[in-house]
Please model this.
Amino acid sequence: MTEPNSATPAPPAFAVRAAKRAAWAVVGEKILEALVYLCGFSAIVFVLGIFLFVFKEAFPILANDNFSLTQFLFSPEWYPTSEVNKRYGVFAMIAGTCSVTVLAMVIAVPFGLGAAIYISEFCGHKTREILKIVIEFLAAVPSVVWGFIGLTVMSRLIVQYTGAPVGVNMLNGGIILALMCVPIIVSISEDALKAVPDSYREAAIALGVTRWQLVWRVLLPAAKNGLLAAVLLGVGRGVGETMAVLMATGHAVHIPNSVFDSVRTLTANIASELGEAPAGSDHYRVLFLIGVLLFTLTFAVNLIADTIVRGIRRK
Amino acid sequence: MVNVPAIEKHIEVTGLRLSYGMKEVLHGISFDIRRHEILGVIGPAQSGKTSLLRCINRTIEFTPGTHVSGTITVDGEDVRKVRDVYALRRKIGMVAPLPVGLPLSIRENVALAPRSAGLTRKGDLDAIVEQCLRQAALWDEVKDRLDSLGTKLSGGQQQRLTIARALSHQPEILCLDEFSIAIDPVTTMRIEEVLKELRHHMTIILVTNLTQQARRLADRTMFLWKGEIVELDTTDVIFSAKPTDPRTRDYVEGVFG
Model:
């Protein structure tokens, strides 16, 4: 307004007014801002740093004339310590990692999602609290203990009930890994389901849908991003887990024909051989190259997940 | 349509008491709702209007710590003794004050209830979807994007989607809980026209903060205050210069304190 209206008096001023901001407050805020910036970017720095370091250790082998990348990726022959003919083919271990992870997911995803649905939608308050504590406890079991269980209890059970010649095999590793993934999948899926607003539940219930139809037709679609994240974190754990699978899978370099075959995973191979490979040797460098490969694998999984989630969101 | 006598009771509420924990919010109210009438329910906040609706379709059970006594019968059947609560809820369409678009496509939002009730033929479902969206005055705006997410619609559109959804299972009773607070006046009037049409097919309970809306639409109006019925009479009487209870006049005229 350009014309001041003399008829209406100005509103009374507040008795207390905020003082002008002190110089230190302005500077302090700038410093805080910079710190938060730094924290955010440090994640990128660390990821790049790790990748560069691992890649730097592995790089000389790629320049070596005796080494072929095709053979590395597609040959199942892993003889790093042979006297006459060293061969570095990790295909069997890629197969091992993939098969154990897939098997673990086949077991863990239905169990994990089922448990999350039960805890979040069906069980009573008391049961829920108890189950959550137990599941958190499961998540806290160290992986070496899981490996120990696989090596002793699970392998005996497998031999007893399936008649397999050895108990430490892909099935054993898959089950142990599944047990390790379930708590993660349960707790993240449960959070995802909890995040679905109650108004959705009430609206659907008022339409006369049953509890199952509510879960199936409304809650799962509503929570799908979170559920997908839960499953992929499980996959991430499956690909990256080392100790338990090292102990439970039998550690044989072999492309599995059945779930009762022993397999070796990429991670277990690094863990078991890096200590024995002389620093700077070809063997040592190939192990680092396996590290790069693992890095690429998990990166690919994350990228795919991200693309799927974005695709769902855009729709 | 069968010609039913106007005084047939569709819903009968007798001595309904409801408490959340220790706090009683409905203090033993009794009234009945006639078939194919629009019953307006007015009253200030916290007077138990929404709770009353939630007792009728039994969604009150999902709030922990509630205690209900007294009876509500729908078509002569006690709602708390019905064998198939899902069938009961399908008889009742419910529209909440704030729009709740389910995170599904527009088509699936409307098709959810009939599909869950066992209807699977796509042709039938599409016909229901179109009819309900038309009734809710939304069809023209969304007919070209039925497969996009219902939650992407504007607030007013979502509210009309909610109304379409409430009609999708062809309810005998339609409960509207302050349906117009998220909708612009023009759309509100369009929906009010729809309600005037729908009342030939169903009983409508219209909970509203806009007393004039009750005056425009309702056959009878109930003034609910602090969990008790102050007055229930024909809308003409409630909005006349001399309702039975002076509090009613005060509330309607906006001088209630």
